[in-house]
Amino acid sequence: MSIDAQDIADRYAAVWTEADPQRRREAIAALWAPEAVHLLHPPVEVREAAARVGFDDPVLEARGHAELEVRVTRAYQEFVAPGEFTFRTRKDALRLRDVVTFGWEMAPSAGGEAVGGGLEFVVVGADGRITADYQFPGR
Protein backbone atom coordinates (compact mmCIF):
# COMPACT_ATOMS: atom_id res chain seq x y z
CA MET A 1 0.00 0.00 0.00
CA SER A 2 1.26 3.45 -0.92
CA ILE A 3 1.53 5.83 2.00
CA ASP A 4 1.12 9.57 1.34
CA ALA A 5 2.84 11.28 4.27
CA GLN A 6 1.10 14.64 3.96
CA ASP A 7 -2.30 12.96 3.61
CA ILE A 8 -1.73 11.12 6.89
CA ALA A 9 -0.61 14.37 8.54
CA ASP A 10 -3.61 16.32 7.27
CA ARG A 11 -6.09 13.61 8.31
CA TYR A 12 -4.38 13.47 11.71
CA ALA A 13 -4.91 17.20 12.32
CA ALA A 14 -8.49 16.95 11.06
CA VAL A 15 -9.34 14.32 13.69
CA TRP A 16 -8.35 16.69 16.52
CA THR A 17 -10.57 19.46 15.12
CA GLU A 18 -13.66 17.37 14.25
CA ALA A 19 -16.71 18.73 16.07
CA ASP A 20 -19.12 15.85 15.40
CA PRO A 21 -18.53 12.97 17.88
CA GLN A 22 -19.66 10.27 15.40
CA ARG A 23 -17.47 11.58 12.57
CA ARG A 24 -14.58 11.91 15.07
CA ARG A 25 -15.06 8.27 16.14
CA GLU A 26 -15.13 7.12 12.49
CA ALA A 27 -12.03 9.19 11.66
CA ILE A 28 -10.16 7.65 14.60
CA ALA A 29 -11.04 4.14 13.38
CA ALA A 30 -9.94 5.04 9.86
CA LEU A 31 -6.63 6.60 10.93
CA TRP A 32 -5.44 4.35 13.78
CA ALA A 33 -5.30 0.54 13.91
CA PRO A 34 -7.57 -1.02 16.59
CA GLU A 35 -4.70 -1.66 19.02
CA ALA A 36 -2.68 1.45 18.16
CA VAL A 37 -0.82 3.25 20.89
CA HIS A 38 -0.52 7.03 21.29
CA LEU A 39 2.40 8.08 23.49
CA LEU A 40 2.67 11.68 24.63
CA HIS A 41 5.89 13.22 25.86
CA PRO A 42 4.47 15.07 28.89
CA PRO A 43 4.86 18.81 29.42
CA VAL A 44 7.85 19.85 31.52
CA GLU A 45 5.74 20.52 34.63
CA VAL A 46 4.39 16.95 34.51
CA ARG A 47 7.89 15.52 34.04
CA GLU A 48 9.22 17.58 36.97
CA ALA A 49 6.35 16.53 39.26
CA ALA A 50 6.89 12.87 38.33
CA ALA A 51 10.64 13.13 38.95
CA ARG A 52 10.00 14.47 42.47
CA VAL A 53 8.23 11.20 43.34
CA GLY A 54 10.73 8.91 41.60
CA PHE A 55 9.47 8.61 38.02
CA ASP A 56 12.39 9.63 35.83
CA ASP A 57 10.74 8.89 32.46
CA PRO A 58 6.97 9.47 32.60
CA VAL A 59 4.93 8.81 29.47
CA LEU A 60 1.24 9.45 28.93
CA GLU A 61 -0.36 6.63 26.93
CA ALA A 62 -3.65 5.93 25.19
CA ARG A 63 -4.10 2.46 23.66
CA GLY A 64 -6.88 1.36 21.32
CA HIS A 65 -9.75 3.24 19.72
CA ALA A 66 -11.72 3.83 22.95
CA GLU A 67 -8.77 5.44 24.77
CA LEU A 68 -7.77 7.39 21.66
CA GLU A 69 -11.31 8.72 21.41
CA VAL A 70 -11.16 9.96 25.02
CA ARG A 71 -7.76 11.59 24.39
CA VAL A 72 -8.80 13.30 21.15
CA THR A 73 -12.18 14.38 22.53
CA ARG A 74 -10.68 15.96 25.64
CA ALA A 75 -8.11 17.86 23.56
CA TYR A 76 -10.92 19.01 21.27
CA GLN A 77 -13.05 20.15 24.22
CA GLU A 78 -10.18 22.03 25.85
CA PHE A 79 -8.58 23.72 22.86
CA VAL A 80 -10.92 23.72 19.84
CA ALA A 81 -14.55 23.69 21.07
CA PRO A 82 -14.34 27.06 22.86
CA GLY A 83 -13.57 28.58 19.44
CA GLU A 84 -10.23 30.13 20.27
CA PHE A 85 -7.82 27.62 18.66
CA THR A 86 -7.50 25.09 15.89
CA PHE A 87 -4.87 22.49 15.01
CA ARG A 88 -3.13 22.44 11.64
CA THR A 89 -0.21 20.62 10.11
CA ARG A 90 2.95 22.16 8.87
CA LYS A 91 3.49 21.12 5.26
CA ASP A 92 6.63 19.18 6.19
CA ALA A 93 5.48 15.54 6.33
CA LEU A 94 8.19 13.01 5.49
CA ARG A 95 8.00 9.27 5.01
CA LEU A 96 10.72 6.66 5.41
CA ARG A 97 9.24 3.22 4.76
CA ASP A 98 6.59 2.75 7.46
CA VAL A 99 7.45 5.88 9.47
CA VAL A 100 5.92 9.31 8.91
CA THR A 101 6.98 12.48 10.72
CA PHE A 102 5.32 15.86 10.59
CA GLY A 103 4.95 19.04 12.54
CA TRP A 104 1.68 20.45 13.79
CA GLU A 105 0.59 23.77 15.22
CA MET A 106 -2.07 25.11 17.52
CA ALA A 107 -3.12 28.46 16.10
CA PRO A 108 -5.86 31.01 16.71
CA SER A 109 -9.06 29.99 14.92
CA ALA A 110 -9.26 33.46 13.41
CA GLY A 111 -5.84 32.92 11.79
CA GLY A 112 -2.39 34.13 12.58
CA GLU A 113 0.76 32.90 14.22
CA ALA A 114 0.85 29.55 16.00
CA VAL A 115 0.85 29.67 19.80
CA GLY A 116 2.13 26.11 20.18
CA GLY A 117 2.96 23.01 18.25
CA GLY A 118 4.94 19.86 18.15
CA LEU A 119 6.40 16.93 16.28
CA GLU A 120 4.54 13.74 15.45
CA PHE A 121 6.33 10.47 14.69
CA VAL A 122 3.96 7.71 13.55
CA VAL A 123 4.45 4.12 12.45
CA VAL A 124 2.02 2.98 9.79
CA GLY A 125 0.89 -0.63 9.35
CA ALA A 126 0.40 -2.56 6.11
CA ASP A 127 -3.23 -1.39 5.96
CA GLY A 128 -2.17 2.28 6.03
CA ARG A 129 -3.36 2.93 9.58
CA ILE A 130 -1.21 4.19 12.43
CA THR A 131 0.03 1.48 14.80
CA ALA A 132 2.24 3.67 17.00
CA ASP A 133 2.00 7.43 17.49
CA TYR A 134 4.68 9.39 19.35
CA GLN A 135 3.77 13.01 20.13
CA PHE A 136 6.34 15.59 21.19
CA PRO A 137 4.64 18.91 22.01
CA GLY A 138 6.85 21.98 21.97
CA ARG A 139 9.05 20.80 19.11
Produce the secondary structure layout.
Blueprint lengths: L4 H13 L3 H11 E9 L3 H9 L7 E4 H17 L4 E5 L4 E3 L2 E10 L7 E9 L5 E8 L2
Parallel strand pairs: 1-7
Antiparallel strand pairs: 1-2, 3-5, 4-5, 5-6, 6-7
Helix pairs in contact: 1-2, 2-4
Can you tell me the overall shape?
Answer: globular
SSE order in H/E notation?
A: HHEHEHEEEEE
Structural class: alpha+beta
Report on the biggest sheet.
7 strands, mixed
Average pLDDT number: 94
Our count of helices gives: 4
Radius of gyration: 15 Å
Quaternary: single chain
The number of strands is: 7
- Spans where pLDDT lies below 50 across 5 or more residues: none
Distance between the termini: 30 Å
Strand content: 25-35%
What does this structure look like?
The protein is α+β, with helices and mostly antiparallel strands and 139 residues long. Helix content is 36%, strand content 35%. Strands 1, 2, 3, 4, 5, 6 and 7 form a seven-stranded mixed β-sheet that branches. Strand 5 (99-108) and strand 6 (116-124) form a beta hairpin.
